[in-house]
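A common beginner's mistake is to predict each chain separately and then try to dock the pieces by hand. The better habit, illustrated here, is to supply every component at once so that their relative placement is modeled jointly.
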Amino acid sequence: MGNESMISLSGMVMAPVLAAGLPLAAINWHSVLFLLFASLASIFAVGVVLADNVVRMALYLVFSLAATAGLFFLAGAEFIGAMQLMIYVGGTLVLLVFGVMLTAQAPFVSIKPSAADRALAGLAGSSLLVVLLAAALSVDSWQRPGLSEVTAPTATPLGMALLGMRVDGPAAGAATGAVANGYLLPFEIVSIHLLVVLVGAAYLARAKRRRTPRPIDAAASAVSVVEGSTRVELPAALPPRSGSASALVSGGSK
Amino acid sequence: MNLLSPGTHLLLTIALPLIGAVVLWLLGSRGVQAVRQSATVTAVLTLVSAAWLILRYLGSTAAAAGAPYAVVEAPWLVDGLFDVRLSLGLDGLSLWLFGLSALLSLTAVLVSWEAIQEKPVGFYVLLLLLEAAMLGVFAARDVILFYVFFEFTLVPLFFLIGIWGHDERRKAAVKFFLYTLAGSVLAFLGLLTIVLWNASHTGKVTFDIAALTAGMAAHPLPMNAEGGWLQMLVFLALFAGFAIKVPIVPFHTWLPLAHVEAPTGGSVDLAGVLLKIGIYGFLRFSLPMLPDATAVAAPWIFGLGVVGILYGALVALVQTDLKRLIAYSSVSHMGYCVMGLFALEPVAVEGATLQLINHGLSAAGLFALVGMIYERFHTRSIANLGGIAARAPWLTVLFMLFTFSSIGLPGLNGFVGEFMILAGSFQRAWSGVAPVWQTAYMVMAVSAVVGVVLGAWYMLWAVERVFFGGSREPPRGAGHAHDHSAAAHGAGGTHDAGGHDGHASHGHGAPQVAADLDLHWYETAALVPLAVFVLWIGLMPDTFLKPSAGAVRAAARPSADAFAARMESLTVPLPGNPATDTLTARVVPLP
Amino acid sequence: MNSVSDLGSIVSRSLHDTLALSLPLFRPELCLAVTVVLLLLCRMLPVLKMLDSAWVALGGAAFALFYAWSDLRGLPGWLGGDALASRQEIFTGLLVFDSLTAYIRLLLMAFLVLYIPFTKVSGIPDREDGADFYTLVLGATLGMCLMASANHLLMVFMAVEMASVPSYALAGLLKGRRASSEAAIKYAVYGAGASGIMLYGMSLLAGLLGSCHLPTMARQLAGLAGAIPAGNLGGVEMVLVLGGLMLAVGLAFKLSAVPFHFWCPDVFEGAAAEVGGFLSVASKTAAVALLLRIAFGLGMPVAVLPGADSSSALAGQAAALQGALLGDARHFMVATIGLMAALTCTLGNLAAYGQNNMKRLLAYSTIAHAGYLLMGVAAAVALSGSHPASARTAVSAVAFYLATYLFMNLGAFAIVAFLRNALRSEEIASYAGLIRTSPGIVVATGVVLVSLIGLPPLAGFWSKFLIFSALVEAISLSAERPLMLVLLVVGGLNTVFSLYYYLRVLKVMTFDPLPADRPGEALSLVSFPGAIVTALAVPVVMLGIFWSGLYACAQLAGAFAS
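With all components supplied together, the output reads:
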């Protein structure tokens, strides 16, 4: 599963190309839908880049990601497709749009990069695209999309894999001596990660006024020092020296 | 005699200055008199210990066999891969330099007797640390130890110049330190490459210099395109370090500044010992370990030596500052050592090692005397000095003695060294090089002789102007001078160094009796030992040449052989060409 | 297909894998995770609110250090002890426990145990911010532990993110200061870009090799040459190269290697010195470990086959090591890492020349040291194909370097932090004449900086010596001779270049006159800050003299490459 999600990222870029490479006879509904979703995803992705307005950008991103979800469905990865819709389209982006609309102020709503920036970004982006395309097209096995019927997996194996158990292919793994990876660890450890990141975000967002001046603030400016502070604590860093203590106190009372 | 094993004796000799430094530091509160007395006692004890050790060496079987003596070894990390030991010892190569370090350290302590009034504790502690480091450099038988001591000679001198120096002391200290350190790091990297190359062949990482020399003989560093000219790279790295230290001419720019700005004690150690480490390094590492690269580079470095002789002499000729003049004469005289070493002729190499000692004695003496003159007259400007001979006869006598030693008057030590170097160089030029090089070698050898004449010229001219003729600078009371110099140093350079004009206003005009201007007892004590050795080496050079001859020749032999082979390969094989035959015929003319 | 009994066996096997095999080898990380939760709990309960969060964090780190130490001691090769297998894949192969894991984890935990008292004394996270700060630090360190033990691209990415995202927040620790916020934003934006590119590279590699499990990928790589018609190999190689390069971008960003080093000086200058120390030491240690993981995981695959000790596996190893694609892969890695090393080292050292801000100078010094470390890694990879024993020595050299680097660089940042508290400035010029008021600190600074230059008899010398000896070994043994020779020369010259800017700091401290308005004593060694500085500077000296013990540990770490 992990692999597929990895591939899907490069798939976003490769989608139109693979479509173009299809022989005419192979066109069926599957291909037509694929073309449709792929081009939608690409067009809106370009739209995100070209748009000047932040809200529009967010909206285009919603469409592009939704179309990508469609690609996942087509590839037979219903679970990932659903997750894509739920998490990106449903959750993250709606939050993003809300955030943008709530905080949007005139100078930040419209982003107009200079022509030079555009040219530079275009050059870098397109050269990367060209390299990636050339690389992708040079691999034989990637040029023939398997059109065979795929049995749609249920969410059970995925869920089991996230609990550390691979029920889908232990036999194959045993033959080669390879381990079929279960994903218990990332599933669990990410919770700690999210917790830590949340604490960090809260710290950065918290606008609480400092009650104790840090040694470094005393030097830099008196901005963060509250007027009429009652509790002036000496940080442990400072040696108990009257000179610096008085400097801190006077800095605090200014 | 067996009371003290030679190894312990050596360790004790190196440790004595350190112990003295600690004692000195503890005595710091007892006043300047206690400090300088204990510094003197320490230096004397160390000198006695070193002299006794040298005598024991000369009486031992090791001296005859050319084996290292007084070996101390402590294992550091010895396991499958590493065989790293810390080891010390003396051999013919290092013997006299070791003794010279002990001798000149006493001189440095004594000449600072009155000159250093400000922060004397720090000054003498650093001076003694410097002495321990200098003794250690020459006693190290291990690359790491050598390097550590080498670096440790820099640090005390850095502070000696930077704190007790003259007006531009900070610039001088930093320049001296950075130049030397950059060079020494390069040299150390070269040595590391040797260590590692040796390890990749023997499977043992060892830093032992003797083992490395043997290893380099067994499997030399590659000296071809396939091996990346690794030997040449390593040689250049070592050259960078040692050439800056010597200094060989394009790398000499730090020297005059450092000498002029250093306090007298620092100048004595710098000129007397530290410059010698460069030549010692060549002889200890480059010549025995990298013979092929040395053979390729030798003619060029020989040439640089000659350039140094002429350049140093010519620049000295136009100096107006007496100390600067002697600094440039150092450049010139070290040129002889470089030339002798890279002639790769046994006589010349031996002469170069003797000349190290000679220059150590004469330059240290001259710098000490210039310091004394500065203390008395508060100027070093040749134009403002004159007629000292009448007022300070003994000072003049000693100055003349060291001057004659420096210009190579027969009967004094300088003559022996220079003669051997020139004789060896002519021998090399005459019969030891391929025809394509012969003319160049002849020209270089003759130019070196011109250098001798120039050397006599600038030194004698300076002596004539400073010591004879009319008195130009009103002498100043010794006591006033001290106060004045201390104040000038303390104020951090408010006083102008060459400032004779400034002095005029200071002239208190109190006429001094001549006795006051002549040598004090401590100054006499500082200079007389040097003078004794100047005469001793001049009259009986064999005493000093013999113990080191074997080791010196052995060190130079690999390179000399490689050079001979290279010259042979350059020689067009004409039938009956005598050039190759005479390569083996060596005449050793000793005076 | 999946009968109930099958499922039962799967469940029991999975339980066994997780509880019996994996968790016992995961104790240091568990300690960190528990401490993170405890730090949060402490804030909720009024009784525990009295407790300073630094002590909680320190306690957790100490426990983690103890477990990390006992894990390292359990490894075979440690004084005859072999309580643990030398290599054990845990969590169904997502992580791997071996000597490198144990060693790096030990380093990181030792770092934490030194770092937490340092920050406590320096006072940058005060009582109010302490819990947040230590949560972020511990969370990032947890990610770094995972970086050192990652065995699967998914874990590689997660670990990098876990280490990075809290670091972005740490860079912005000094809220309300423009420079700090700017540093955080810059770091985050650059970091996000680098992660994106790294993810691209990973997807290319995984897509081609059909797996994210590093040993499996390497096996696929070895088998790829046979599976693909000869004419089309070029395309596959191109994708591999592209994927490898993009993966390298992410790693280079973490290592602050040229040309992805731009963030480093700005972030170090903007962020507090304490954060700089964290990023410079811990983050770099983990990044080097991850680089070793990936380079050896993809370049030397067969050694890690199950049952590699049997003769057939050995034969297979020999055959696979000769595999054309694997050899090419190693060559490619050596070239990339080596080139990056030379550039990083040189640019870092040259750019440090013009710096007037001490933190900025240390940032460039950090970049330069990343270059030396990369040289060691390049030598190790170059030797891994033909001379595994020498490759082990090279890895030991890198491991040793990392340990000494911990003390040297953390010491340097600690001095910067304490001097900032005392002098209210981080400009080098403000250190003028410090030797007159606080000689002890100047001596400690001298020790640390001279060790960073790499002069004997200090610890930094042996690190550089071991790295250079690995390069010489590679010159004489491996097929990459020209590159290794270039690296040796570049490394040597850079050591000389670096003299000037380190010594300039010392020169300012010793020679320049003391400003008239300076208070009496800036910082004494007999004080809490002095004690911290001493605790960091003394090991630098002691490891220079008694280095054999640490080297034995580092050799153990090198054993992972067998």
